[in-house]
């Protein structure tokens, strides 16, 4: 028979306590509901994030302001390929971006699942549409079966509704709820300032608008937006998108003849690289303006009344896939209803956004008008 003295009991308890203290704390999981309504278990203290598109770093930068690339351990190569001016500006300030491992190039078919698994992410973020794995992608199923949480965000299909939702769910997943709420409040305040003035506007008071996406870069003129994406911005600020009746989704193509027949009041072209419209971080205004003049001189659309009436404008293409889209919304509001929104100042809003939420470089040209000579 073994007799356990009070002293021995105390020593044993101290030993157990010391052992428990030596064990790392077990990470707790929380349930995140993404924009597709999927319930995803994400652990606390996410440290390793893989992005289905490099341009999703625009959103991460809001939440991880002081070190926006610290937690990103993998992404696609789309930022370098499709928004090169911004990539170079990021690389100059944060050299690490050049060394972030690539999971693919700029398409879903190029994404390598094994590469993602080898990166051992705590969280994978995909967009519902775009150049990476899309909604209901089998890649997400493969990762989930391996115990890796995947959440979907959306800044491009239904951006007005899903920008605040996407930032909110990422904030919850990344432990940045305070930062997410602050941005959502900022976004809502600026959006309400526009929509409140338009709530009683009749359709006949709304100018017609044609938005040509990646003008001069896309394989044929007429690449445009329908009822989602940039088209949603146009509708929100009181414009009538001429392509909304023929392009049901966020993007599509229309014939040159269709545009010439509609002869819209306002013509907006988007771009971010040569040989089209040069806009984005690090782009000087004179270069942006010269590139817009070149795009507007193409023979297909040069007879549009919008060009002749000096109502043609250039907009950074990647606003369509970024939480910074509130800047594009304000800019479009001024172009479409200049008298109603003469007090609106997108440049001031951009400065406020940059100073409050970002450390990534934003200096550059993001919207532009043609030169007087054009």
TrEMBL record:
N-terminal signal peptide: 1-29
Alphabetized InterPro entries for the sequence: ABC_Transporter_SBP (IPR050902), ABC_transptr_periplasmic_BD (IPR002491)
Keywords, ordered alphabetically: Signal
Domain of life: Bacteria
Gene3D superfamilies: Nitrogenase molybdenum iron protein domain (3.40.50.1980)
Domain Fe/B12 periplasmic-binding, first and last residues per copy: 48-344
Pfam families assigned: Peripla_BP_2
Name of this chain's protein: Iron complex transport system substrate-binding protein
Organism encoding this protein: Neorhizobium alkalisoli
């Amino acid at each position: 028979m073994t007799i356990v003295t009070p002293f021995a009991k105390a020593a044993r308890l101290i030993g157990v306590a010391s052992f428990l203290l030596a064990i790392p704390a077990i990470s707790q999981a929380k349930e995140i509901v993404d924009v597709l309504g999927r319930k995803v278990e994400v652990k606390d203290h996410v440290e390793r994030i893989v992005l289905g598109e490099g341009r999703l770093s625009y959103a991460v930068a809001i939440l991880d302001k002081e070190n926006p690339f610290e937690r990103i351990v993998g992404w696609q190569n789309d930022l370098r390929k499709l928004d090169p001016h911004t990539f170079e500006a990021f690389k100059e300030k944060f050299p690490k971006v050049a060394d972030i491992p690539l999971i693919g190039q700029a398409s879903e078919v190029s994404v390598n699942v094994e590469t993602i698994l080898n990166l051992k992410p705590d969280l994978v973020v995909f967009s519902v549409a775009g150049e990476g794995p899309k909604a209901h992608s089998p890649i997400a199923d493969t990762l989930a079966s391996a115990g890796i949480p995947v959440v979907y965000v959306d800044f491009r299909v239904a951006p007005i509704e899903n920008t605040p939702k996407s930032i909110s769910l990422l904030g919850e997943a990344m432990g940045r709820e305070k930062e997410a709420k602050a941005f959502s409040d900022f976004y809502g305040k600026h959006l309400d300032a526009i929509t409140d003035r338009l709530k009683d506007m009749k359709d006949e008071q709304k100018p017609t608008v044609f938005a040509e996406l990646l003008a001069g870069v896309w394989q044929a003129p007429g690449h445009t937006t329908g009822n989602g994406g940039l088209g949603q911005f146009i509708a929100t600020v009181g414009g009538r998108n001429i392509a909304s009746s023929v392009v049901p989704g966020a993007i599509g193509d229309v014939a040159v003849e269709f545009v010439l027949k509609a002869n819209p009041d306002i013509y907006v072209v988007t771009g971010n690289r040569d040989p089209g419209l040069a806009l984005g971080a690090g782009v000087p205004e004179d270069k942006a303006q010269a590139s817009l003049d070149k795009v507007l001189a193409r023979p297909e659309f040069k007879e549009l009344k919008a060009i002749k009436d000096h109502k043609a404008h250039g907009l950074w293409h990647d606003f369509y896939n970024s939480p910074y889209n509130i800047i594009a919304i304000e800019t479009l509001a001024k172009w479409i209803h200049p008298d109603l929104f003469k007090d609106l100042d997108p440049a001031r809003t951009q400065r406020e956004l940059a100073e409050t939420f970002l450390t990534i470089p934003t200096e550059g040209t993001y919207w532009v008008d043609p030169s007087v000579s054009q």
